[in-house]
Amino acid sequence: xxxxxxxxxxxxxxxxxxxxxxxxEKYGFEIIAVLVDVGRMKDLETLRQRALTAGAIESVVIDxxxxxxxxxxxxxxxxNALYEGRYPLHSALSRPLIAKKMVELAREHGAKxxxxxxxxxxxxxxRIDVSTRCLDxxxxxxxxxxxxxxxxxxxxxYLAERGIDLPLTKKNPYSIDENLWxxxxxxxxLEDPWAEAPADAYVFTVDPKKAPDEPEELVxxxxxxxxxxxxGKTMDPVELVETxxxxxxxxxxxxxxxxxxxxxGIKSREVYEVAGSLSLIMAHREIEDLTLTxxxxxxxxxIDQRMTELIYEGLWFSPLANALRAFVEESQRYVTGxxxxxxxxxxxxxxxxxxxxxxxxxxxxxxxSGDTFSHESAKGFIQLWGLPVEVWARxxxx
Length: 398
Fold this sequence. Notes:
The chain has 398 residues and is of the alpha/beta class. It folds into three domains: 167 residues, HUPs (Rossmann fold), CATH 3.40.50.620; 133 residues, Argininosuccinate synthetase, chain A, domain 2; 35 residues, Single alpha-helices involved in coiled-coils or other helix-helix interfaces, CATH 1.20.5. 43% of the residues lie in helices and 20% in strands. It contains 14 helices and 14 strands. The strands form three sheets. It has a five-stranded parallel sheet with strand order 3-2-1-4-5, sandwiched between helices. Strands 10-9-8-13-14 form a five-stranded antiparallel sheet. A four-stranded antiparallel sheet has the order 6-7-12-11. Helix 1 crosses helix 7.
């Protein structure tokens, strides 16, 4: 009798390694582990073999770095997506892509089940579950970590009892998630929101006090809303994001210490390292300032906010998200140009911007010679603009 197959979203960490024998024992599944590489992953072959050691019948590594940036991170960038004004959504953006790859693999292998290692308190369970159901409602999603209630030491003992020897320890107090768009750290000392984040919570950003004493500038070039060059040199997406992240982090920029409102109803304190994504969002906004009309820019701000919420809430593949992305995409037609960013001691500031489609007209903006603005028109404009409130005031106050 053929056993049912289950595609497991595998990270190589403790939870998903323990899930392999757990799913086999509880459900009798044959496990196909899939590791979706969205950046900052090392020793991929070692991780792939680790899943096989844990008992998977097949272990697959998918290089999805460019797809992640092109179809997810850059789509969010065009919407200037920052949850609660601070978090660039790096985890939220990778989950629908992981779900997509799991569904594709499930169809390829005839699997009716997919599984993940998300906990009951996190947002990621919502993102993967809902994304999977959007893509294929006939696939059943399992989240065993919501039911087993095992601590980290217990998970290690669970693996050891089954003769599965993995190079994992009980020492690391943090829960970490990272990809090309950023790094998130929670648990351990960070669970006390009054306590300062320990120095060892940060890996990619230096302490601003120890950052270089001289500033550094980067010129980021955009074409139709997408970053394409640094200092005039065209780069592929992965190299560009990694370079911006490295430069920003070297100057102590990109540290975010945030208590955020999770979708499941609790507040969570997390530390983020997001030098690259924050820099690019800042630069993108500057090009929009130059190239979007006032009405479009103000209305798009509302669309951006709603788009950000949908991403955070796991509704990337929803009809509303699809429609809003179409609006955002149309708004980017002339968002082309360059922005000069300056990094110094933990800060990043835009110090210059230019675009071939700039709506900034110096002859209209100047207060010096060459002014072409119609000053005599201002009085009549103000008179008509204020007419409705003047009529109201005469009616009710006069």
